[in-house]
Amino acid sequence: MTRPAKRITSTDVARVAGVSQTTVSFVLNDKPGHSIPEATRLRVLEVARQLDYRPHASARALAAGRSDIVLLSLPDLPMGGAITRFVEEMAAALADHGLTLVTHLAGARGRPLADVCATVNALAVIGLTSFDDDTAQALYRAGADVVLPTRFSHSAAGLPVGRLQAGHLIARGHRRIGYALPAHPGLREMAADRLEGVVAACADAGLEPPVAVGTSLEVDAAAAAVAQWAGNSVTGVCAFNDETALAVLAGLREQGLSAPGDLAVVGVDDIPVARLAAPPLTTVSFDLRHAARGRAEVIMAALAGREPGLVHREEWRLIRRASA
Amino acid sequence: MTRPAKRITSTDVARVAGVSQTTVSFVLNDKPGHSIPEATRLRVLEVARQLDYRPHASARALAAGRSDIVLLSLPDLPMGGAITRFVEEMAAALADHGLTLVTHLAGARGRPLADVCATVNALAVIGLTSFDDDTAQALYRAGADVVLPTRFSHSAAGLPVGRLQAGHLIARGHRRIGYALPAHPGLREMAADRLEGVVAACADAGLEPPVAVGTSLEVDAAAAAVAQWAGNSVTGVCAFNDETALAVLAGLREQGLSAPGDLAVVGVDDIPVARLAAPPLTTVSFDLRHAARGRAEVIMAALAGREPGLVHREEWRLIRRASA
DNA sequence: CATGGTAAGTAATGCGCATTACCCAGATCG
DNA sequence: CGATCTGGGTAATGCGCATTACTTACCATG
């Protein structure tokens, strides 16, 4: 386990390839407007490969005045399976564009976002929910080029989810719909979007608006929510996400009831344990990889100053299982 | 929402404070061996605060030859709730020491670890499972100062978990124990540790070794596993983690059986949905924040070239619910 | 043949910081 | 009284790279 071997720099590559460091830089960055003959190009590339050269990110960032770091601010909330996967996919998608995703947990313990942004010299800062103006200002001042309120579930996207959930219930004959709101405040904004979709679906079907009830992931809280729905003759519930839906299922059980007979339940996300529930959870899922890639593209576009171009349509689909 | 505003550099601070940039650097880094009168110190500090100065990470890294980045390599596996939380806690703990945790997903899509390590100029690289020698070498060569096989579940720690699980079952009178191994290869190393603990507990109690069976998170696979245990007259099963345990529960249901009557089930992690399962899952949990802080300390120690000092004992505890 | 153009490069510069080497006024000492 | 030390600083340097300004050799063209 020795550790000798100094770092290999672009100057090393230059020396071995018999060119100047400038040329190496041009070749490696594919600088346009500078004609480098193919032979030289290849030679440099080959030497770089042989020497196992990797540009030094800090130096590059310092010289170029911009890093390749995209900072993702995550609310300090119980991250469910879906968000986690989304983050992973985002990281992979951005990596394909040469960007590095680093996540920052908001919340009491951490340093302020603008602080982190400045210290890592982030190129862009994105979040799951929109930043208020003050925060955005602070981030720009902290050196961010792009600050995107790139919500995981953009307003445009929250609605279809709710519609899909409610639509399924309505199609199955339910006339009084409930909605299970998450207890965590950080999730509220996202939940509001989805709830709106449910409201819309109910309106379209000529039904009364859904009975929205909040519940934590505790059995008691869920049982109370179930009681409330029962009191309002609700027969089908759309839950904010799968975890909330599982809580509802547990609440039903607690009350000696069951899904879908007493109350049909539809979740969102299709987390791995959704299919393992009793009964297996009917839920709405979408291709996280696809979505992450879409988001990454929006970011790239913003960085390039372009308009996002065609954003891939996110395809949500209902996964029918036993709970509804 | 525009506001250009150049970055504030240490030179700016120096100018305003009427000292040299060198002095600012000394003050801000608390450089020992250089006597700076309190008055100057305070003045610099105050100006830095007023100007909202934040050192530029890249510049600092370049100048100092070392970044403040700790790279965490995560296997490309379905990260359950527990690992995610662990990562969050790690990040927070390291941030308290001025370090930044960035995670890298191993796996086909991503760039090789050593590559990432070199480009971000990571100070340390850590992982959940041990790195083999070649990889470690490559990482050192890529510039890492410290490479820790800092396993989430260190060999020393995997055993107690298994022991705790098995101990509970044995105490409840089970004489033939099963073990549910996760299907994902990336989890195998961790699982082996825990299984070993179960083996030890069985041996201690004079029982035969556990019947280890692999299962994915699909109901069918779990049902098959359940059948296998039934065929071996196993009455209690320790699962690798809660998700696997939930699969076993679903497998039981599929077979028309139930826990704990037909088969007692014990998980690990106490993920949020564990208490929502049918029946609520008995599981082993531990204080992730505590553990993360402990790990962070080990890293800090290694960076300082010190021995880890006293590592906080990780306290696992059994959470008794209905499934076992 | 002078002029300009282009292809193929290189030297020099500076990003923001940490660090090293140095500097100077006054106190202490031999 | 000159030499030495020391507290309180500063100037200069360089990390590894991207970028800008410049150079040289080799054409083509009027």
Task: Provide a descriptive summary of the structure in words.
2 copies of one chain form a homodimer. By secondary structure, chain A is of the alpha/beta class. Chain A has 3 domains: 46 residues, Orthogonal Bundle (434 Repressor (Amino-terminal Domain)); 109 residues, Rossmann fold (3-Layer(aba) Sandwich), CATH 3.40.50; 132 residues, 3-Layer(aba) Sandwich (Rossmann fold). Helices cover 46% and strands 15% of the residues of chain A. In chain A, the strands form 2 sheets. Chain A has a 6-stranded mixed sheet with strand order 6-5-7-8-9-10, sandwiched between helices. In chain A, strands 2-1-3-4 form a 4-stranded parallel sheet, with helices on both faces. In chain A, helix 11 links the parallel strand 7 and strand 8. In chain A, helix 1 packs across helix 3 and helix 6 runs parallel beside helix 7. The termini of chain A are far apart. Chains A and B meet through helix 4, helix 5, strand 2, helix 6 and helix 7 of A and helix 4, helix 5, strand 2, helix 6 and helix 7 of B. The structure holds a DNA duplex (30 and 30 nucleotides).
